Amino acid sequence: MDVYEMLEELQEKALHDETIKQALLETRKEKEPIIAFCKQCQELGYEIYPMELINAGEEFYATMRRSTNGGGENSPKLSGEDDMYELFMTAIERGHEF
Fold first, then answer.
1. pLDDT at 39
2. The predicted structure's pLDDT at residue 85
3. Neighbours of 60 (CB within 10 A)
4. How far apart are CA 67 and CA 92, in angstroms?
5. pLDDT value of position 10
6. Nearest by Cα to 84 from 43, 35, 34, 44
7. Residues 59, 2: Cα–Cα separation, whole Å
8. Rounded to whole angstroms, how far apart are CA atoms 72 and 26?
9. Alpha carbons 62 and 17: distance in angstroms, whole number
């Protein structure tokens, strides 16, 4: 299972379990939120590590850029679209899939 699949599964759990949702949202308050998030994921049985999370965001964004407007360098940078942590947090906070 890749990072994106683990995040999807974890998101589904968070949307149906308020305790998990709150534990994940609380990581935003930490000094190192991504490290805290990954630790929480690991405690829930998902082997997600900071570099994997960052790489997943960059790969997701690169795929998205290639699929729009020819994917060239003229494609506009979409602020935050390469940040899987924030996309995940926003999705569970708003109660929908990312």
1. 97
2. 87
3. 18
4. 26
5. 95
6. 34
7. 12
8. 38
9. 32
